Automatic annotation (TrEMBL):
Domain of life: Bacteria
Domain DUF7226: 285-425
Pfam families reported in the protein's UniProt record: DUF6996, DUF6997, DUF7226
Name of the molecule in the record: Translation elongation factor
Phylogenetic lineage: Bacteria, Bacillati, Bacillota, Bacilli, Bacillales
Ranges where the DUF6997 domain occurs: 76-249
Domain DUF6996: residue ranges: 7-75
Protein backbone atom coordinates (compact mmCIF):
# COMPACT_ATOMS: atom_id res chain seq x y z
CA UNK A 1 0.00 0.00 0.00
CA UNK A 2 1.34 3.47 -0.87
CA UNK A 3 2.67 5.63 1.94
CA UNK A 4 0.86 8.78 2.99
CA UNK A 5 2.63 12.07 3.80
CA UNK A 6 1.93 11.33 7.47
CA UNK A 7 3.59 7.88 7.17
CA UNK A 8 6.70 9.44 5.61
CA UNK A 9 6.87 12.23 8.20
CA UNK A 10 6.63 9.78 11.11
CA UNK A 11 9.39 7.63 9.56
CA UNK A 12 11.67 10.66 9.71
CA UNK A 13 10.71 11.37 13.35
CA UNK A 14 11.07 7.72 14.45
CA UNK A 15 14.57 7.66 13.02
CA UNK A 16 15.58 11.12 14.26
CA UNK A 17 14.45 10.53 17.86
CA UNK A 18 15.08 6.74 18.07
CA UNK A 19 11.44 6.42 19.14
CA UNK A 20 11.18 2.60 19.06
CA UNK A 21 14.35 2.19 21.14
CA UNK A 22 13.14 4.82 23.63
CA UNK A 23 9.79 3.03 24.02
CA UNK A 24 11.52 -0.34 24.51
CA UNK A 25 13.73 1.22 27.19
CA UNK A 26 11.28 3.55 29.01
CA UNK A 27 7.90 2.15 27.99
CA UNK A 28 6.86 5.41 26.30
CA UNK A 29 8.26 8.44 24.48
CA UNK A 30 7.33 12.10 24.91
CA UNK A 31 7.57 14.30 21.84
CA UNK A 32 7.12 18.08 21.62
CA UNK A 33 4.76 19.67 19.10
CA UNK A 34 7.64 21.88 17.89
CA UNK A 35 9.69 18.71 17.11
CA UNK A 36 6.79 17.33 15.06
CA UNK A 37 6.31 20.70 13.36
CA UNK A 38 9.87 20.55 11.97
CA UNK A 39 8.59 17.77 9.69
CA UNK A 40 4.84 18.41 9.34
CA UNK A 41 1.93 20.25 10.98
CA UNK A 42 1.16 18.55 14.39
CA UNK A 43 -2.62 18.67 13.88
CA UNK A 44 -2.18 16.40 10.85
CA UNK A 45 0.34 14.19 12.63
CA UNK A 46 -1.18 13.45 16.02
CA UNK A 47 -4.99 13.27 15.78
CA UNK A 48 -6.22 9.84 14.72
CA UNK A 49 -9.92 9.44 15.56
CA UNK A 50 -10.00 5.79 14.42
CA UNK A 51 -7.55 2.91 14.46
CA UNK A 52 -7.67 2.81 10.64
CA UNK A 53 -6.11 6.31 10.56
CA UNK A 54 -2.97 5.38 12.52
CA UNK A 55 0.29 5.73 10.57
CA UNK A 56 1.90 2.54 9.27
CA UNK A 57 4.74 2.53 11.83
CA UNK A 58 2.24 2.86 14.70
CA UNK A 59 0.14 -0.07 13.47
CA UNK A 60 3.18 -2.28 12.84
CA UNK A 61 4.51 -1.69 16.36
CA UNK A 62 1.22 -1.59 18.30
CA UNK A 63 1.64 2.09 19.18
CA UNK A 64 -0.70 5.03 19.66
CA UNK A 65 -0.35 8.71 20.59
CA UNK A 66 -2.11 10.94 23.14
CA UNK A 67 -1.79 14.68 23.84
CA UNK A 68 -0.55 15.42 27.38
CA UNK A 69 -0.42 19.23 27.15
CA UNK A 70 -0.93 21.96 24.55
CA UNK A 71 2.62 21.42 23.33
CA UNK A 72 3.49 17.75 23.84
CA UNK A 73 2.38 14.18 23.20
CA UNK A 74 3.16 10.73 24.55
CA UNK A 75 3.67 7.67 22.32
CA UNK A 76 3.42 4.14 23.72
CA UNK A 77 1.81 0.71 23.38
CA UNK A 78 -1.43 2.15 24.73
CA UNK A 79 -4.87 0.72 24.13
CA UNK A 80 -6.71 3.93 23.18
CA UNK A 81 -9.67 2.88 20.96
CA UNK A 82 -13.06 1.40 21.79
CA UNK A 83 -14.75 -0.88 19.24
CA UNK A 84 -18.32 0.07 18.32
CA UNK A 85 -20.76 -2.75 17.73
CA UNK A 86 -24.17 -1.67 16.41
CA UNK A 87 -27.09 -3.72 17.69
CA UNK A 88 -28.84 -4.48 14.40
CA UNK A 89 -31.86 -5.96 16.19
CA UNK A 90 -32.65 -2.62 17.82
CA UNK A 91 -35.69 -1.04 16.14
CA UNK A 92 -35.22 2.76 16.11
CA UNK A 93 -37.69 4.73 18.26
CA UNK A 94 -39.72 7.12 16.09
CA UNK A 95 -39.76 10.78 17.10
CA UNK A 96 -41.70 13.65 15.54
CA UNK A 97 -40.00 16.66 14.04
CA UNK A 98 -41.54 19.92 15.37
CA UNK A 99 -43.73 21.40 12.59
CA UNK A 100 -42.88 25.02 13.51
CA UNK A 101 -39.09 24.62 13.13
CA UNK A 102 -37.90 26.04 9.79
CA UNK A 103 -34.14 26.52 10.34
CA UNK A 104 -33.30 22.79 10.51
CA UNK A 105 -34.03 20.59 7.52
CA UNK A 106 -34.39 16.95 8.70
CA UNK A 107 -33.64 15.73 5.14
CA UNK A 108 -30.27 17.55 5.18
CA UNK A 109 -28.40 16.69 8.39
CA UNK A 110 -24.98 16.28 6.86
CA UNK A 111 -22.91 17.96 9.58
CA UNK A 112 -22.39 16.68 13.13
CA UNK A 113 -23.72 19.89 14.66
CA UNK A 114 -26.95 19.85 12.58
CA UNK A 115 -27.54 16.19 13.54
CA UNK A 116 -27.05 17.03 17.24
CA UNK A 117 -29.34 20.10 17.07
CA UNK A 118 -32.00 17.95 15.40
CA UNK A 119 -31.60 15.23 18.05
CA UNK A 120 -32.05 17.84 20.79
CA UNK A 121 -35.16 19.57 19.41
CA UNK A 122 -36.91 16.24 18.74
CA UNK A 123 -36.46 15.18 22.38
CA UNK A 124 -33.89 12.43 21.85
CA UNK A 125 -31.51 13.82 24.50
CA UNK A 126 -34.33 13.82 27.06
CA UNK A 127 -35.19 10.22 26.19
CA UNK A 128 -31.55 9.17 26.65
CA UNK A 129 -31.22 10.97 29.99
CA UNK A 130 -34.74 10.19 31.20
CA UNK A 131 -35.36 13.83 32.17
CA UNK A 132 -35.62 17.27 30.50
CA UNK A 133 -32.28 18.85 29.60
CA UNK A 134 -30.67 21.95 28.10
CA UNK A 135 -27.60 22.26 25.90
CA UNK A 136 -25.09 24.18 28.00
CA UNK A 137 -21.66 23.77 26.37
CA UNK A 138 -19.83 22.93 23.15
CA UNK A 139 -16.47 23.71 21.58
CA UNK A 140 -12.86 23.90 22.71
CA UNK A 141 -11.62 24.22 26.27
CA UNK A 142 -8.68 23.25 28.48
CA UNK A 143 -8.56 19.88 30.22
CA UNK A 144 -6.94 21.34 33.39
CA UNK A 145 -4.65 18.89 35.25
CA UNK A 146 -5.24 15.24 36.11
CA UNK A 147 -3.49 11.85 36.21
CA UNK A 148 -4.79 8.55 34.90
CA UNK A 149 -3.78 4.93 34.45
CA UNK A 150 -3.81 3.45 30.95
CA UNK A 151 -3.39 -0.16 29.88
CA UNK A 152 -0.68 -1.16 27.42
CA UNK A 153 -1.17 -3.87 24.83
CA UNK A 154 1.02 -6.14 26.99
CA UNK A 155 -1.43 -5.75 29.87
CA UNK A 156 0.81 -3.54 32.01
CA UNK A 157 -0.19 -0.21 33.45
CA UNK A 158 1.19 3.32 32.89
CA UNK A 159 0.47 6.49 34.82
CA UNK A 160 0.05 9.55 32.59
CA UNK A 161 -0.14 13.18 33.70
CA UNK A 162 -2.24 15.64 31.67
CA UNK A 163 -1.60 19.35 31.99
CA UNK A 164 -3.91 21.77 30.12
CA UNK A 165 -4.38 19.69 27.01
CA UNK A 166 -6.89 21.11 24.53
CA UNK A 167 -10.20 19.26 24.37
CA UNK A 168 -13.27 19.69 22.20
CA UNK A 169 -16.83 18.77 23.14
CA UNK A 170 -19.43 18.39 20.39
CA UNK A 171 -22.30 18.85 22.82
CA UNK A 172 -22.90 19.04 26.58
CA UNK A 173 -26.47 18.60 27.90
CA UNK A 174 -27.44 19.28 31.50
CA UNK A 175 -30.52 17.96 33.27
CA UNK A 176 -31.57 18.10 36.92
CA UNK A 177 -29.32 15.24 38.05
CA UNK A 178 -27.03 14.53 35.07
CA UNK A 179 -24.59 16.11 32.63
CA UNK A 180 -24.19 14.32 29.28
CA UNK A 181 -21.02 14.80 27.20
CA UNK A 182 -21.47 13.84 23.55
CA UNK A 183 -18.82 12.97 20.96
CA UNK A 184 -20.50 12.93 17.53
CA UNK A 185 -19.72 11.37 14.16
CA UNK A 186 -21.72 11.66 10.95
CA UNK A 187 -21.11 8.09 9.81
CA UNK A 188 -21.14 4.45 10.89
CA UNK A 189 -17.81 3.70 12.58
CA UNK A 190 -15.85 0.61 13.65
CA UNK A 191 -14.30 2.31 16.68
CA UNK A 192 -13.61 5.67 18.31
CA UNK A 193 -10.85 7.33 20.32
CA UNK A 194 -11.77 7.03 24.01
CA UNK A 195 -9.76 10.20 24.78
CA UNK A 196 -12.52 12.25 23.12
CA UNK A 197 -14.86 11.24 25.95
CA UNK A 198 -12.36 10.59 28.74
CA UNK A 199 -10.58 13.96 28.91
CA UNK A 200 -13.86 15.96 28.94
CA UNK A 201 -15.31 13.46 31.45
CA UNK A 202 -12.41 14.05 33.86
CA UNK A 203 -12.65 17.84 33.47
CA UNK A 204 -16.39 18.06 34.11
CA UNK A 205 -16.45 15.46 36.84
CA UNK A 206 -14.43 17.95 38.90
CA UNK A 207 -16.61 20.91 37.92
CA UNK A 208 -20.12 19.56 38.57
CA UNK A 209 -21.65 17.46 41.35
CA UNK A 210 -24.04 15.84 38.87
CA UNK A 211 -23.57 12.39 37.32
CA UNK A 212 -21.43 12.84 34.16
CA UNK A 213 -22.64 10.62 31.30
CA UNK A 214 -20.15 9.99 28.45
CA UNK A 215 -22.04 9.31 25.20
CA UNK A 216 -20.78 8.42 21.74
CA UNK A 217 -23.26 9.44 19.03
CA UNK A 218 -23.48 8.61 15.32
CA UNK A 219 -25.90 9.87 12.70
CA UNK A 220 -25.83 7.48 9.77
CA UNK A 221 -28.37 6.30 7.19
CA UNK A 222 -31.06 8.51 8.83
CA UNK A 223 -30.59 6.74 12.20
CA UNK A 224 -29.48 8.56 15.36
CA UNK A 225 -27.51 6.11 17.57
CA UNK A 226 -26.52 6.89 21.15
CA UNK A 227 -23.99 4.67 22.92
CA UNK A 228 -24.24 5.50 26.62
CA UNK A 229 -21.11 4.58 28.60
CA UNK A 230 -19.74 4.81 32.09
CA UNK A 231 -16.17 4.83 33.37
CA UNK A 232 -16.32 2.21 36.12
CA UNK A 233 -13.07 3.57 37.60
CA UNK A 234 -12.70 7.31 36.83
CA UNK A 235 -8.90 7.10 37.26
CA UNK A 236 -8.56 4.45 34.53
CA UNK A 237 -8.77 5.33 30.83
CA UNK A 238 -9.67 1.73 29.92
CA UNK A 239 -12.57 1.34 32.36
CA UNK A 240 -15.14 2.38 29.74
CA UNK A 241 -18.23 0.16 29.81
CA UNK A 242 -21.28 0.28 27.54
CA UNK A 243 -24.49 0.80 29.52
CA UNK A 244 -26.96 0.86 26.61
CA UNK A 245 -27.50 1.75 22.96
CA UNK A 246 -30.54 3.81 21.99
CA UNK A 247 -31.53 4.39 18.36
CA UNK A 248 -33.99 6.97 17.02
CA UNK A 249 -35.42 7.92 13.64
CA UNK A 250 -37.54 10.88 12.60
CA UNK A 251 -41.06 9.62 11.95
CA UNK A 252 -41.77 9.02 8.27
CA UNK A 253 -43.99 6.93 6.07
CA UNK A 254 -43.05 3.27 6.65
CA UNK A 255 -41.13 1.39 3.99
CA UNK A 256 -42.71 -2.00 3.22
CA UNK A 257 -41.35 -4.94 1.27
CA UNK A 258 -44.18 -4.40 -1.25
CA UNK A 259 -42.64 -0.97 -2.00
CA UNK A 260 -39.30 -2.64 -2.80
CA UNK A 261 -40.97 -5.24 -5.04
CA UNK A 262 -42.87 -2.43 -6.80
CA UNK A 263 -39.56 -0.65 -7.45
CA UNK A 264 -38.04 -3.88 -8.75
CA UNK A 265 -40.89 -4.40 -11.22
CA UNK A 266 -40.75 -0.81 -12.50
CA UNK A 267 -36.97 -0.47 -12.75
CA UNK A 268 -35.33 0.54 -16.05
CA UNK A 269 -32.24 -1.59 -16.74
CA UNK A 270 -29.00 0.28 -17.48
CA UNK A 271 -25.98 -0.86 -19.46
CA UNK A 272 -23.04 -2.03 -17.31
CA UNK A 273 -20.80 1.05 -16.95
CA UNK A 274 -17.08 1.11 -17.73
CA UNK A 275 -16.33 1.32 -14.03
CA UNK A 276 -14.94 -1.51 -11.87
CA UNK A 277 -17.71 -3.77 -10.58
CA UNK A 278 -18.15 -2.85 -6.88
CA UNK A 279 -16.08 -4.35 -4.08
CA UNK A 280 -17.77 -2.55 -1.19
CA UNK A 281 -19.75 -5.01 0.92
CA UNK A 282 -21.40 -2.54 3.31
CA UNK A 283 -24.10 -0.49 1.57
CA UNK A 284 -24.64 1.74 4.66
CA UNK A 285 -21.04 2.94 4.21
CA UNK A 286 -21.93 4.02 0.65
CA UNK A 287 -24.91 5.99 2.01
CA UNK A 288 -22.54 7.59 4.55
CA UNK A 289 -20.14 8.57 1.77
CA UNK A 290 -22.99 10.12 -0.25
CA UNK A 291 -23.93 12.10 2.87
CA UNK A 292 -20.36 13.35 3.28
CA UNK A 293 -20.43 14.67 -0.29
CA UNK A 294 -23.70 16.62 0.09
CA UNK A 295 -22.02 19.77 1.43
CA UNK A 296 -18.50 19.46 0.01
CA UNK A 297 -16.62 17.89 -2.86
CA UNK A 298 -13.83 15.79 -1.30
CA UNK A 299 -10.47 14.39 -2.39
CA UNK A 300 -9.45 10.81 -1.66
CA UNK A 301 -7.18 12.17 1.11
CA UNK A 302 -10.04 14.19 2.65
CA UNK A 303 -12.24 11.09 2.84
CA UNK A 304 -9.47 8.87 4.22
CA UNK A 305 -8.20 11.42 6.75
CA UNK A 306 -11.51 12.66 8.13
CA UNK A 307 -13.77 9.62 8.14
CA UNK A 308 -13.51 6.00 9.25
CA UNK A 309 -12.14 4.77 5.89
CA UNK A 310 -8.65 3.52 5.12
CA UNK A 311 -7.05 4.31 1.74
CA UNK A 312 -8.21 1.07 0.14
CA UNK A 313 -11.80 1.45 1.38
CA UNK A 314 -11.94 5.02 0.08
CA UNK A 315 -11.04 3.71 -3.38
CA UNK A 316 -13.59 0.88 -3.24
CA UNK A 317 -16.48 3.00 -1.93
CA UNK A 318 -15.99 6.00 -4.24
CA UNK A 319 -15.79 3.54 -7.14
CA UNK A 320 -19.04 1.84 -6.00
CA UNK A 321 -20.78 5.23 -5.93
CA UNK A 322 -19.55 5.89 -9.47
CA UNK A 323 -20.81 2.48 -10.61
CA UNK A 324 -24.29 3.43 -9.36
CA UNK A 325 -24.17 6.81 -11.13
CA UNK A 326 -24.31 8.71 -7.83
CA UNK A 327 -20.69 9.97 -7.61
CA UNK A 328 -18.39 11.41 -10.25
CA UNK A 329 -14.76 12.46 -10.16
CA UNK A 330 -12.96 15.43 -11.67
CA UNK A 331 -9.56 17.12 -11.42
CA UNK A 332 -9.48 20.53 -9.71
CA UNK A 333 -7.24 23.54 -10.45
CA UNK A 334 -4.47 22.04 -8.28
CA UNK A 335 -4.55 18.84 -10.36
CA UNK A 336 -6.06 16.97 -7.41
CA UNK A 337 -8.67 14.26 -8.09
CA UNK A 338 -11.94 15.24 -6.40
CA UNK A 339 -15.24 13.42 -5.88
CA UNK A 340 -18.71 14.99 -5.99
CA UNK A 341 -22.34 13.91 -6.15
CA UNK A 342 -23.92 13.60 -9.58
CA UNK A 343 -27.21 15.40 -10.22
CA UNK A 344 -29.04 12.12 -9.46
CA UNK A 345 -26.98 11.56 -6.28
CA UNK A 346 -27.84 15.06 -5.04
CA UNK A 347 -31.56 14.64 -5.81
CA UNK A 348 -31.73 11.32 -3.94
CA UNK A 349 -29.87 12.59 -0.86
CA UNK A 350 -32.37 15.46 -0.51
CA UNK A 351 -35.37 13.10 -0.41
CA UNK A 352 -37.32 12.05 2.65
CA UNK A 353 -36.36 8.76 4.24
CA UNK A 354 -38.69 6.31 2.48
CA UNK A 355 -38.23 7.81 -1.00
CA UNK A 356 -34.45 8.04 -0.56
CA UNK A 357 -34.01 4.34 0.21
CA UNK A 358 -36.43 3.20 -2.50
CA UNK A 359 -34.50 5.27 -5.07
CA UNK A 360 -31.19 3.79 -3.86
CA UNK A 361 -32.71 0.30 -4.22
CA UNK A 362 -33.71 1.16 -7.81
CA UNK A 363 -30.15 2.35 -8.54
CA UNK A 364 -28.85 -1.07 -7.46
CA UNK A 365 -31.54 -3.15 -9.20
CA UNK A 366 -31.14 -1.27 -12.49
CA UNK A 367 -27.90 -3.28 -12.91
CA UNK A 368 -28.55 -6.72 -14.41
CA UNK A 369 -26.54 -8.90 -11.96
CA UNK A 370 -28.34 -7.40 -8.96
CA UNK A 371 -31.72 -7.54 -10.72
CA UNK A 372 -31.24 -11.24 -11.54
CA UNK A 373 -30.13 -12.15 -8.00
CA UNK A 374 -33.12 -10.29 -6.51
CA UNK A 375 -35.49 -11.98 -8.99
CA UNK A 376 -34.17 -15.36 -7.82
CA UNK A 377 -34.61 -14.29 -4.19
CA UNK A 378 -38.29 -13.48 -4.89
CA UNK A 379 -38.76 -16.81 -6.60
CA UNK A 380 -37.04 -19.00 -4.00
CA UNK A 381 -37.38 -16.99 -0.76
CA UNK A 382 -33.67 -16.92 0.03
CA UNK A 383 -30.62 -15.12 -1.35
CA UNK A 384 -28.78 -17.42 -3.78
CA UNK A 385 -25.57 -19.09 -2.55
CA UNK A 386 -22.24 -17.52 -3.52
CA UNK A 387 -21.60 -20.08 -6.29
CA UNK A 388 -24.95 -19.30 -7.91
CA UNK A 389 -24.34 -15.53 -7.62
CA UNK A 390 -21.03 -16.00 -9.46
CA UNK A 391 -22.84 -17.94 -12.22
CA UNK A 392 -25.28 -15.04 -12.64
CA UNK A 393 -22.44 -12.48 -12.67
CA UNK A 394 -20.62 -14.41 -15.40
CA UNK A 395 -23.64 -14.00 -17.69
CA UNK A 396 -23.65 -10.19 -17.34
CA UNK A 397 -20.53 -9.08 -19.23
CA UNK A 398 -19.03 -7.18 -16.28
CA UNK A 399 -16.36 -4.55 -16.93
CA UNK A 400 -12.83 -5.89 -16.33
CA UNK A 401 -13.97 -8.88 -14.23
CA UNK A 402 -12.48 -12.09 -15.59
CA UNK A 403 -10.45 -14.02 -13.00
CA UNK A 404 -12.21 -16.48 -10.69
CA UNK A 405 -10.77 -14.80 -7.58
CA UNK A 406 -12.23 -11.43 -8.68
CA UNK A 407 -15.67 -12.99 -9.24
CA UNK A 408 -15.49 -14.54 -5.75
CA UNK A 409 -14.57 -11.21 -4.09
CA UNK A 410 -17.17 -9.19 -6.00
CA UNK A 411 -19.92 -11.73 -5.27
CA UNK A 412 -19.66 -10.77 -1.57
CA UNK A 413 -20.75 -7.26 -2.54
CA UNK A 414 -23.78 -8.57 -4.44
CA UNK A 415 -24.83 -10.66 -1.42
CA UNK A 416 -24.13 -7.77 0.99
CA UNK A 417 -26.27 -5.35 -1.02
CA UNK A 418 -29.07 -7.92 -1.40
CA UNK A 419 -29.19 -8.46 2.35
CA UNK A 420 -29.29 -4.67 2.85
CA UNK A 421 -32.29 -4.35 0.47
CA UNK A 422 -34.16 -7.26 2.10
CA UNK A 423 -33.55 -5.87 5.60
CA UNK A 424 -34.73 -2.30 4.85
CA UNK A 425 -38.36 -2.81 6.03
CA UNK A 426 -37.05 -4.02 9.42
CA UNK A 427 -35.21 -0.71 9.91
CA UNK A 428 -37.37 1.85 8.13
Amino acid sequence: MSQTQTDKAWEILFERHHILQQIQHHGFFEIKAKEIKMVREPRLMAKFDHYSHLPKLFKENGLSILPISRSSYVIGEFDVYEKVSYNKRLKPVRVDFPADITTIDPTNLYSESSALHCAHITGMMEKVLGEPCFQTISGRMSSKEFDFHIQTRKGTDRLINIKNSQIEIDGGYESRYQFMIVEAKNETVDDFLVRQLYYPYRLWQEKTNKVVRPVFFTYSNDIFSFFVYEFTDPGRYNSLKLVEQKDFIIAHEELNFEDIVGGFRAVQMVQEPEVPFPQADSFPRIVDLLGLLVDNDLSKDDITRNYDFDVRQTGYYTSAGMYLGLIEKYTDDNKQVMFKLTKLGREIMRMRTKDKYLELVKCILSHKPFWMVFAEYLEKGSVPEKGRVIEIMKKCNLYHVSSESTFIRRSSTVIGWMNWIIDLPNTY
